[in-house]
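Handout, tutorial session.
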Amino acid sequence: MTDNTRGHTLSRLEETVTLLTQNQNTLTAIQNSLHSRLDKVITRFQSLEVSSPSMSPRPSPPHMNLDIPRFDGTNALAWIFKITQFFDFHRTLKDERLQAKGPSGEGRRPKWRRTKPPSGEG
């Protein structure tokens, strides 16, 4: 009876090892398949990252030669509107836009530039 019990236990153990080996082989095949698919996804993502227009610094501006609107010291609001349109047309980023520091020297000087600073300044 002892030999019969040992034989039965050995048989069950062999069946269990066979089943575990089959499961291990199945899991290995699934893992290899997932790894291959993941590699394809990564490759595709990298190619999208390189060719994506949103990843480029910014689109190139239209190819039109426009003169920058010059401030002549009059009608500042109209000039601000024109210069804003100019920068928008050329897709200039806000932090790259010029800061107006005064008239460009064309036309008459604005009243605020004609006044002489108090002595000791300027």
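The second record follows below. Compare its token runs with those of the first.
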Amino acid sequence: MFLLPVVSRRRPGGLNRIWQNPHLLLTSGREEEESLKSKIRADHELALEEAREKLRRSQEELRAEIPTEKNRLAQDLHRKEATALPLPPVPMPKLMGINDGDPGDPQVKEKRDKIREVRGTEGLGVCS
């Protein structure tokens, strides 16, 4: 059995109710599980009915429907892309020793530039 700490027993609201009757926690979990199962069953039945309907059609009807379905799905996709919100910028923490890719020490920078120059003249490609 799971016991809540003493401090949480004194808080007003839901924890007191669950502490006094721990079966509420189990009941709500079961109800949620049953709700999800019934939703899955309904979705499954809907998919089966749609499949049965398509099987009743002739091949010509199905072939004629394919291009219209493709166009509809493409339009839906474009509509979703147009209304999608861009991702918010993520702040990057400033790390020690990193200066936007450039070395802080001028001697190291000079050596790196020399290596880039040599690689470029030998035809090996330029380091970036």
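Points raised in discussion: The radius of gyration is 32 Å.
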